[in-house]
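Handout, section B. The chain below has 107 residues.
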Amino acid sequence: MYANYFQGNWEAGEEENFTEDYKVKHFKEQLFTGYEVPEFEALFETKPVQWITTAGVDGILEPIEDRADFSISDKDFEAFCKWYLAIAEKRELLGCTNHLLYICRKR
């Protein structure tokens, strides 16, 4: 939602991507589709893997990186990366990223 609808059409994005009670709609015909975090993790339950962690990959960066008013110095970017690596696995923030990374070990 942040990357595609934050600069306008938020209501249309909600209607397209969520049910009236905000459950994620799935689009099997598309390359990408949205998932709730537990639903995403459940995709791996029948696979021969051991879950290690789930991490957010991009946070708020994707929707702001192309904005004309977005700028970050090399020093601040280094600090941002250090901070983001420290918070990327926080469960309460996983819904605020556009992409999830499921880290596991093959059994």
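Note. The first helix runs from residue 2 to 5. Compare this with the example in section A.
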